Amino acid sequence: MCMPAFPFEVCGSVEEARSLMHEALDRWFDQVVPLFENGKAPTIIDLSRHFSETRGALMGSVMQAMVEKAYHHHIHQEQAICPECARILKRKRFDRKAVSTLHGEFNLDRPYFYCQICKVGFHPLDDVLAMAPERHQYDVQEKAVKSASKLPFEESADQFSSLTGVGVGDHFLHDTLNAVGDVATLELVIPDRKEIERRIDEVSRSIGTPPILAVGADGAHMPTRAKAKRNEKRGQGSWKEAKGFRLYLVGEKGRIVQIASWHQIQDAEAFKKDLSLVAERIPQDRVRVALLADGAEWLWPAMTECFPTGRPILDFYHCAEHVHEVGNSLFGKGELKARQWSEAILSLLSYSEMDDVLAILRGMRPETEETGEKVRNLAGYLEKNRDRIHYETDRDDGYPIGSGGIESSHKYVCHTRMKRSGAWWVIASGNNMLRIRCAIVNGTYERVFEHYATHPRRSDEEC
Fold it and tell me: Which of 216, 213, 208, 292 is nearest to 252 (CA)?
C-alpha cells in the first residue's frame, strides 16, 4: 500500500542525519544547564519533572529530523499519479500538518496534488508514512481509546494528558472511540478459531481430559436515549436490554479461561445470529458444553440451536432467588422458618428431587391469594425448566451450576462503564463502547485497532 522509504545513504549520509539529531539534543541540553547554575544541584524529582516537560519537544525534533532525511524524496516529489484516472499531476502546493505522537509533536510540510477532472486531492506522503488523518497519530489513538473505555471521557482526557504529556480532549476521545467501535465487528472482537483451539489445547493438557466449555447468556438493562437533533435538547431516557454471552473454559482447579464475551443492545434475533457465528468457531467435538442461563424465554432456543450437544443447566442461584421469595411470602421476610423452608426446598433441588419439590408446592394452602400466586408461579417455573435441573449429576461431572461467569461479564463489560451517574447512551455509541470493552476482555483489541488504522479514511483536507 505504501511506497518504501529511501535509505539514508540515498538521501544523504547517515552522519548528516546523526548531525540533525545531535542539534536537537544540544538545544534540549541547553535547557538543562540552568538547573545546575543556581548553586544547588537538582533533585531526582526536579530532573524528572524537567524531562517530562521537555521530552516531547526533544523527541519531536528528533523524529522530524529522521522523517525529513529518510523521506526526502517523497517530501520534495513534484509529480504524482491520480489514484482515480491515472493522470500525471504536478504538485499544487505544500500543506503543513501538525503530527502528534506519544513521543513528541512536530510539523511536517507535505506536497499536495489535486486532479481537476476527478476532483480528488491527496498527500502521497501521508500514505507512505501511514499517518492518521487526524493530528493525533495512531499510537496516541490506540492508548487513548483504551483509556476512554475505562473512564468517563472528560476524566479520561485529564488522566491521559497528565500521564503521557499529550493533550487530548473529551470530544476527541468520544469521536475516536466511536470510529474504532464502528469497525469492531463481531468477527474481529471474537478470537479466531486458531486462537480458540490453542486455548482449548492448553487447558486439555493441564487437566488431561476434554475441558468443559461454559456458555452463559443473560441480559442487563442499559440507560439509553434518542440522539438529539442539532440545537435540540436530548430526548428522554429509557432502559433497554443489552443481551450478552460469555464463553469460557473450566480449567485446572476450576480456573476460568476466557474464550469470548460479547454484549450488545439488540433484539433476540440479532443475539442468536451473533451466538451462531461464535459457535462456528468452536470445535464442539473437543469440549463438553454447558449451557447456563436463567429462565428467560429468549435465551434457550438460541443456545440449544447453536450448541446442540450442550447440557442445559438452569442457574441454581437464580432458582434460589425464586425459592427464597416464596419462603419469605409464606413465613415472613427474615424469619427463621422462612429460611429453613427455603433451604429444605433447595436441598431437594440440589439432589434433583424435582417430583418431591413439586408435590410439596402443589400441596400447600397459602393464607393469601398473593402468596398462593407466588407458589403456583414457582411450581410452573420449576416444571418448565425440569429438563435443566439436574444439579447432582452436574456437580459429579464437574459442570458449573451457576451463571456467575456471564453475570460478572455483564458487571465488568457493561455496568462499570455504562451505568455511571448521569450517563445516558445513544444506542450506536453505547454498542461501540461495549464492542471495545469486549475486545479488551477477549484479548483482541490490538487486532481491532490495527484494522481501524489500516481502514481507508480521508482527511478533511482531501477534497
Answer: 208
Residue 457 lies in a domain: no
Are 288 and 197 within one domain?
A: yes
Assigned domain for 383 exists: yes
Mean pLDDT score, 305-328: 96
Same domain, 278 and 301: yes
User: How many domains would you assign to the chain?
Assistant: 4
Kindly state whether residues 20 and 123 are assigned to the same domain: yes
Distance of alpha carbon 336 from alpha carbon 317, whole angstroms: 20
The reply to whether 462 falls in a domain is no
Domain boundary among 88, 114, 130: 130
Both 167 and 243 in a single domain?
no
The mean pLDDT value for 19-30 works out to 82
Q: What is the pLDDT of residues 99-132, one digit of tens each?
A: 999 999 999 999 999 999 999 999 999 999 999 9
Question: What span, in angstroms and rounded, lies between the C-alpha atoms of 73 and 359?
Answer: 87
- Locate all alpha helices (DSSP H) within 385-458, ordered by sequence: 391-396, 404-409, 416-418, 427-442, 445-454
Walk across the sheet containing 104-115 and list its strands: 93-101, 104-115, 120-122
Distance CA 324, CA 19 (A): 78
Does one domain contain both 429 and 380? no
Q: Which residues contact 74 (CB under 8 A, 6 or more apart)?
A: 3, 5, 6, 111, 124, 125, 128
pLDDT at 11: 47
Please calculate the CA angle 424-432-404 and round it to the nearest 5 degrees. Answer: 80
**Residue 456 domain-assigned?**
no
Task: Give the 3-state secondary structure of residue 291.
Answer: strand
Query: Are 296 and 327 part of one and the same domain?
Result: no
Segment 131-146, tens digit of pLDDT: 999 999 999 999 999 9
Whole-number average pLDDT of the chain? 91
Q: How far apart are CA 337 and CA 325, in angstroms?
A: 13
pLDDT at 361 over 90: yes
Per the structure, the complete domain to which residue 148 belongs is given by 138-183
Grid coordinates given for 121: 486531492
Shared domain check, 305 and 217: yes
Match 493525533 to its residue by C-alpha cell.
Answer: 136
Q: For residue 22, what pLDDT band results from cuts at 50, 70 and 90?
A: confident
202 shares its domain with 219: yes
Cβ-defined contacts of 161-168 (< 8 Å, 24+)? 164/102, 164/140, 165/52, 165/53, 165/55, 165/56, 166/56, 166/100, 166/101, 166/102, 166/105, 166/136, 166/140, 168/136, 168/140, 168/144
Per DSSP (E only), the strands in 284-385 are: 288-293, 311-314
Residue 171: count of CB within 10 angstroms of its CB: 11
